[in-house]
Amino acid sequence: MTRVRMTLMASALCAALAAAGPAAAETKKMVIAAPGIPPIFASVILYVADKEGFFKKYGVNAEVRPFDTGTAASRAVIAGDIEMSLSPSALLINQISNADADTVAIYGLTNTDFLLATTDPAKTSCKDVVGQPVGVDTVGGARSIALRTMLAGGCPGVTIDDVKQVALSSNVAAAMLAGRLNFGVLHLDDVSVLEAQGKKVDKLLTVQKANPNGHYLVFVVRVDKLKENRDDYVRLMAALIDAARFIRDPNNADKVADDAAPTGHPKEVSKATIKPLIDIDYWPVVDDGLDRKRLETLIGVMKKIGGIKPDKEPVKYDRLVDESVWRDAKAMVDAKGKVH
User: How many other β-carbons are positioned within 10 Å of the β-carbon of residue 324?
Assistant: First the structure.
């Protein structure tokens, strides 16, 4: 009798698991690209969402996967290999304008911390960069676009063609620390790394000054995938909103610095970087970071400097972004009631 009961119980368990299988399978894995190996500091919002349990809180099955650059990540989104990338705003503008890429932005990082820096005390003018190797992520990538923008807006008479771009992914600071080159396009955390190692850094140009109304990064998704799995994207966005709120709470600075470990920085460097980024509203929480005026200004800049081909029509703002995902995600976050 016991054996019969056990057999019946086992059969019932198998049936229950079989019934649960399709429901579990409905939770699609959402792969999000973190640009740079190691990832750039902007990616910390992704790691906070993962490590602090926000993806789980909103019922989304997410994987954060590093890519060499935001350019490579965006191409993976276009190819349908991943669900979302954190990529340069200018890149998305160019891809849609030039090739009608079936992609759209759903969240943005408006303000950039990019700067052109040197570790050579004898070369502290932007004109000293002429003919010199300059570290970037990849030609046409975020740092490369930033370099072009800084030279065009802040160094009269010097263009991108006057320098030698050296592709180093996110390892520009490491190359400068090793003495392989003296000029590089850096983030604030890169500067902290160099200075922590005793390297004096002179800041020649910043994107904020060269193009104060520009736009930095966007979270890129494919239009067709967004239509097919919209609920998953809304839940993913809700997790990022909670993560951004968590980062902004000064009481969480140690946790955020711990969560930032994948960037490769020591905890003290990460912790020192967080507040300056919050001060420039780096990870938006009040809105979706898809400011119309800034993005339309950037579209104009891309047309002017040749990012958009002469025979191509620049993308319109309403085609470039989908503001509804963030709006619905915020409503979901507010409905949860717990604000970090």
Answer: 13
Burial of 103 (0-12, 13-18, 19+ CB in 10 A): buried
Identify the CA nearest to 173 among candidates 265, 260, 110, 67: 265
Task: Yes or no: say if 46 and 32 are a contact pair by the CB < 8 Å rule.
Answer: yes
What's the CA gap between 262 and 246, in Å, rounded? Answer: 18
Token pair of 105 as six digits:
């932005």
H or E stretch at 103: strand 103-109
Considering the segment(s) 115-210 as one domain, its CATH architecture is: 3-Layer(aba) Sandwich (3.40)
| CA–CA separation, 287 and 257 (whole Å) | 24
Q: Is the pLDDT of residue 220 over 50?
A: yes
* Look-up of token digits 């994207």: 233
Which of 222-227's residues contact partners 24+ apart within 8 Å by CB, and which partners? Answer: 222/77, 222/78, 222/80, 222/83, 222/102, 222/103, 222/104, 223/102, 223/103, 223/104, 224/102, 225/80, 225/83, 226/104, 226/106, 226/322, 226/325
Superfamily of domain 28-111+215-336: Periplasmic binding protein-like II (3.40.190.10)
> What is the per-residue pLDDT across 121-168, written as a single tens digit (0 to 9) for each?
999 999 999 999 999 999 988 899 899 989 998 999 999 999 999 999
Write down the residue that tokens 């990082």 correspond to: 109
Whole-number Å distance between alpha carbons of 163 and 117: 14
DSSP code string of 70-89: HHHHHHHHHHTSSSEEEEEH
